[in-house]
Design goal:
Length: about 800
């Protein structure tokens, strides 16, 4: 083995030494002005330099194909074929903006911004994209914890950032809010394989900059869909893996037609049996996009959507079952007439969602541009349940008399529906020159829905009709937002950032909840959210920044059901240091997030598996985040990140043993003090990469009373990702082979769970509080392999 390793190293060294060194040179400017101190390097190599006082650079590289990176806060990348000396001049003005990225310019920040953020590129997405949802792909980013009900990253997945749950992470698709307007949650299962149509993602941690939709209390996740591509292309992807997982995707692009038009599209199907018993997923999705460009006019029209059918796995299991039967799924369980345990085969969630977007960007002058966006989202679907010995009167079915016996309970199957429509108009105008970036925008949305339940079968149905409603309720939400923000460059070292947002929300409900309780809400919320920051560039390598931001957000529907009507408020302070040295960089950030009336998760779930929240009064999150991208040498790179945090409720009160008790300072639920990740990347040549991915999440309490029963153990997992692109293949442009081994050391762990309390009377007639917990086991070692044929 040692001999083979020595020979491999010798061959690689000899191959690199034998290759002819060629010169790449040029000049880097900003609107024609020479730019000094720009980092220039070739990806997957150890070759790099910086531009001199005249903006000139020079690199010596062996002949071959490379991706050159020009980095000066903003970044530009160029793919080159180096078989003779090459001159490449680069203008860094608006470096990171492509035609598509101007659509989300109002909601994103650049590398020099005083906003804490991480970017996730298309290349990084493609390396691991084998059908798992976006939260699983983003698990490598700082302060992120992702989880999945089915245990293998397909089906229902969710993300937490800095301890804040998914309903507190603001998600936008091309600047259009994706969070459900009532629950404020993000249901990725309704957009299966959306990663295949994603150009890049920016995660802003903390309050971030102004965005559309509900306020960001943990982070903002801004997703840009497929970029305009002037070259015709087609791709066919198939992948297979553990638990009967398979993914089939076909994509196409027409390239530029008549110098103005492009069209791209995708169809996908993902199926999986899931790690948890019967937790299967049957997911279908589509994506179709057209673009038009003529001079300063750029129009992007797209439609996308999906249909998910997933067997319910949101109930979790208790600790005893966890130890004896990790994959047990209690959903759909009932007892038949012979006393045998059965499982209903259609205990599923079935939901469809279609999105229609139109974006029109108009360049008015070299400095001024406008953008108009329209959106319509149509969602409809249900989850189905087998109810044993259900109360007929509750389901609006009259008692049935048979042989003189009155039957008031019956086994039945019911569906609980949600139909909704969501309309958005968004307009922004922007001005930019070498000193000022200014954006102002208006946003209006209208959301309406129907909640209703129906019985589709009953053993004793009386005179009821199929699909008679047994409850019906509505919800309507209107939102108007106005914002203005600007970055002013004082000099070459110092810049200021300011952001003012007014957000006005009107929420109204009527009718019955699923518990048949009359819910009447008519509330108006008016929020003013200021933000400010500054960036100081010490020298070419060091940059300091500081920022403050306020966010406020309204309660969600279930909060109103639980009697909570107060909005919550967050003041977020960030202090950061960015160190950029050639091809490597280190970002360090301190944050203090101070909350009033924060809505923290109690740990308990409602009858549809949704987390229940409560107001914690005053609370805070303090943390240190470190993120690095280190080029060790030509063969190895390292991308570690670490979050150390303290997350506390200040004076937490809980009803225990029949009385309200002040527990003082307690831990905020689902907020681990340590989150760490690392990627060790081996890239011996341009088209081959091996990535060893590690993730550690410290122990966390699933409730707010520091009960040992609620403790979720820490876990440490490792994945192995291999990507190889075979070029110059007959009939194809290339073939990309991807392999992913998850949890390579077969660790038994639970990434999520729930905690609940209940009252009972002891033998002395006193009220006592009992406690219980449930867990969501994740899969042991499992794999996914795939191949993409590129035409």
């Amino acid at each position: 083995m040692k001999t083979k390793l020595f020979l491999l190293c010798t061959i690689l060294w000899g191959w690199q030494s034998y290759s002819q060194n060629l010169k790449v040179e040029g000049k880097v400017t900003d609107q024609g002005n020479p730019l000094s101190g720009v980092s220039v390097y070739a990806k997957s190599t150890n070759s790099g330099t910086v531009t001199d006082d005249s903006g000139n650079y020079q690199l010596m590289l062996p002949s071959g194909e490379y991706t050159l990176v020009f980095k000066y806060g903003n970044q530009r990348e160029f793919d080159i074929k180096l078989y003779q000396n090459l001159t490449l001049d680069v203008d860094m003005f608006k470096a990171e903006e492509s035609l598509d990225e101007v659509l989300v310019q109002a909601f994103r920040v650049d590398a020099d911004s005083p906003i804490t953020h991480s970017n996730f590129s298309k290349a990084e997405i493609e390396e691991r994209n084998l059908g798992q949802d976006i939260p699983i792909l983003l698990n490598v980013l700082p302060s992120v914890v992702s989880t999945t009900d089915a245990g293998n990253g397909i089906g229902y997945t969710s993300i937490r950032v800095r301890g804040s749950d998914a309903s507190r992470v603001n998600v936008t698709l091309n600047g259009i809010p994706y969070n459900d307007q009532e629950s404020q949650g993000t249901f990725w299962v309704n957009l299966p394989d959306f990663a295949s149509s994603t150009e890049n993602i920016q995660l802003q941690r903390g309050v971030g900059t102004s965005t559309n939709g509900s306020g960001a209390f943990g982070a903002s996740l801004n997703i840009l869909t497929e970029a305009k591509n002037d070259k015709a292309n087609a791709e066919l992807t198939n992948s297979f893996g553990s638990f009967g997982t398979r993914r089939h995707t076909v994509e196409f692009g027409t390239g530029l037609l008549e110098d103005n038009f492009t069209f791209t599209g995708r169809l996908s199907q993902i199926k999986s049996d899931g790690y948890i018993d019967r937790a299967f997923s049957d997911l279908k999705s589509y994506f179709l996009q057209g673009t038009f460009q003529d001079g300063g006019t750029y129009i992007k029209a797209l439609t996308f959507g999906g249909n998910n059918i997933t067997y319910q796995a949101w109930n979790g299991i208790d600790r005893e079952t966890l130890e004896n039967d990790r994959t047990f799924n209690p959903s759909g369980q009932y007892t038949d007439e012979n006393g045998n345990t059965q499982f209903y085969d259609n205990e599923v969630d079935n939901y469809k969602q279609d999105h229609y977007q139109l974006h029109w960007n108009q360049k008015l002058t070299p400095n001024w541009s406008t953008n108009l966006s329209l959106n319509y989202t149509y969602g409809r679907g249900y989850f189905e349940q087998y109810e044993e010995d259900a109360d007929l009167s509750f389901h609006e079915i009259d008692p049935v008399s048979i042989g003189g016996e009155t039957i008031e309970e019956s086994d039945l199957i019911r569906r609980r529906w949600l139909d909704n429509d969501y309309y958005v108009v968004n307009a922004t105008s922007s001005y930019s020159d070498s000193q000022v970036d200014f954006t102002s925008g208006l946003f209006y949305s209208y959301y309406t829905n129907d909640h209703f339940g129906e019985v589709i079968w009953s053993r004793f149905a009386g005179n009821s009709e199929i699909r008679d409603n047994y409850y019906f309720g509505t919800g309507t939400k209107q939102e108007f937002t106005v914002f203005s923000k600007a970055t002013i460059k004082i000099n070459d070292q110092f810049s200021l950032f300011g952001d003012l947002q007014g957000r006005f929300v009107h929420y109204e409900t009527s009718g019955l909840t699923s518990d048949k309780v009359n819910l009447l809400v008519d509330e108006q919320f008016n929020f003013f959210n200021p933000k400010a920051g500054a960036t100081f560039r010490v020298n070419e390598e060091n940059q300091l920044y500081a920022s403050y931001g306020r966010a406020q957000r309204e309660p969600r529907r279930t909060d109103f059901e639980n009697g909570i009507t107060n909005p919550e408020i967050l003041d977020d302070f960030e202090l950061g240091w960015r160190l950029d040295f050639g091809p490597s960089s280190i970002n360090t950030n301190l944050y203090a997030m101070l909350y009033k009336d924060q809505m923290v998760l109690t740990g308990a779930l409602d009858d549809v598996g949704a987390p229940i929240r409560e107001t914690s009064g005053e609370s805070y999150r303090l943390g240190l985040e470190i993120e690095a991208d280190l080029r060790l040498n030509q063969l190895f790179s390292l991308r570690p990140n670490l979050t150390l945090s303290r997350n506390k409720n200040v004076d937490f009160r809980a009803n225990l043993n029949g009385e309200v008790q002040n527990l003082g300072e307690t831990n905020i639920s689902y907020s681990p003090e340590i989150i760490a990740a690392n990627q060790l990347i081996f890239h011996p040549f341009q088209d081959f990469q091996v990535n060893f991915i590690s993730k550690y999440v410290g122990e966390q309490y699933m409730g707010n009373i520091d009960s040992e029963v609620s403790l979720l153990d820490s876990f440490f997992t490792n994945d192995l990702n291999i990507v190889y692109e075979w070029n110059e293949v007959p009939l194809f442009k290339s073939i990309v082979f991807t392999g992913l081994v998850n949890n390579v050391f077969d660790v038994e762990y639970e990434s999520n769970g729930y905690f609940f309390t209940f009252d009972f009377e002891n033998e002395q007639g006193q009220t006592q509080t009992g406690q219980g917990a449930g867990f969501y086991p994740q899969a042991g070692i499992n794999f996914l392999v795939g191949a993409t044929l590129k035409f």
